[in-house]
Amino acid sequence: QVQLVESGGGLVQAGGSLRLSCAASGSLFSIGTMGWYRQAPGKQRELVASITRGGITNYADSVKGRSTISRDNAKNTVYLQINSLKPEDTGIYYCAAGLTRTVPYWGQGTQVTVSS
Fold it and tell me: Which of 91, 92, 99, 100 could form a Cys-Cys staple with 109, CB 3.0–4.6 A?
């Protein structure tokens, strides 16, 4: 089992930035690809960005160019930096690990609210 603990959410003004962190613990050999998803009110959970253990990244079009996902394998932590925040970035952000597994591991989520 893998436990994921997110931090860094909160209320941010449009145009601002935030950095989310997710620390993994437990059966770390199965972490593999990690990523961030978000779920806006009334919408399905969607991928924001992912990163492989080797550092290959993938971004949703909605955040491409203004976000950076990174990971520190020594600390078993993944980060998500989003700049130029928009109200549509509002949602619950979930950290995920083992994205190539049949059932990935999920964190509890952290709320991000962007005010206009």
Answer: 92
- Cβ-in-10-Å burial (0-12, 13-18, 19+) of 94 comes to buried
Phi/psi class of residue 34: alpha, beta or left (left: φ > 0; alpha: ψ in -120 to 50)? beta
pLDDT digits (tens, 9 = 90+) for 19-52: 999 999 988 877 899 999 999 999 999 999 999 9
Separation between Cα atoms, residue 2 and residue 6, nearest integer Å: 13
pLDDT tens digit sequence for 6-22: 999 999 999 999 999 99
